[in-house]
Amino acid sequence: MKSTFALALTxxxxxxxxxxxxxxxxxxxxxxxxxxxxxSLTAAQAANFTFSAQGxxxxxxxxxxxxxxxxxxxxxxxxxxxxxxxxxxxxxxxTISCTLSSSNSDGTLLDSAYxxxxxxxxxxxxxxxxxxxxxxxxxxxxxxxxxxxxxxxxPQGMVYQVIGxx
Amino acid sequence: MKLTQAFLIGVVVALPVGFYIPRIVxxxxxxxxxxxxxxxxxxxxxxPRGIPPGGETMGMGIGRRLAxxxxxxxxxxxxxxxxxxxLREEVRxxxxxxxxxxxxxxxxxxxxxxxxxYRERGEALESRFRQQATDPAWASKTTAVVxxxxxxxxxxxxxxxxxxxxxxxxxxxxADNGQPPNLDLFPLKVGRELPSLLAYRTEEGGGAGTLVLxxxxxxxxLPNPGD
Lengths: 166, 227
Prior knowledge:
Chain A is mainly β. Chain A is built from one helix and eleven strands. Chain A has one domain: Sandwich (Jelly Rolls), CATH 2.60.120.
């Protein structure tokens, strides 16, 4: 019995490199974008934001929209889900609302989903997330070429990450 | 004593296996000598066949079978890599005429299928809206929200043909002359009351068309092929 155990143990240890080399990593189906991928909707609003490795921050005293492009794979017909991770950074109750929209090559709106978060206070880590799901399954051709998250960013608010999962 | 013997046999068998299989699995495709890709190192020579049963130890028998299997596996991997390489060439158009016509036909078929799905979605949305009863209080309040949002988006009043809300859905009809209206912020402005939006545009000739927005308080549950 002991000898069987010893043989099994030795084979297991000896074959470890084989199993390790055959290990296949699962593909990542989500695309994580730093908030610094976002920008203002108009040139006139660009001065309201600062960018850093942490994300995009509204340094003005008014709520200003930002637009964040999302990568969509063309090899799937699944709905696209987006998660927006935000710092609120406000001493008073603040609302951050976002939409995930798709539009076709001439800019025609195809569909949109809305999400909102209401929170208070500031924090060192993103303190709220917003989940958005498109109804669209169009990923090629004329009908769904671009996917964007648009958020109304309050004063001192920051988009830390935008994640697309399809 | 038996424990030590078993351990030693195990070491003799396992070490070569652990050494060779990763080398074979991780080795690039055969073809380096013909300029098609990196070369595969030579597969270790097999021991001569024909040794009569009992003329070798048990460990040597297992080792030879494993070596045979590894050699076969190595050949199979190389063959598969060659196939993948050939397919890549086809996709890149490396073989003119082999796939171009087929791909064109496929693209056309996919585009037609997509148009059909888009049209069917528009019809399903219209049907869903028409079947809905009207809640006068909700309809009146929500119509005002939609109209305010359209005005703040600077959509010309003349382009807005109709805004109609019922008990959980609204339908907005916007005419365009080929240049679709900029509605980037419209979903944000009505999102609190109507968080889901689906649009359907019909062509009316000469580039002009009508964009119909269907907005829902409760989301849509339309069939999707990806679900």
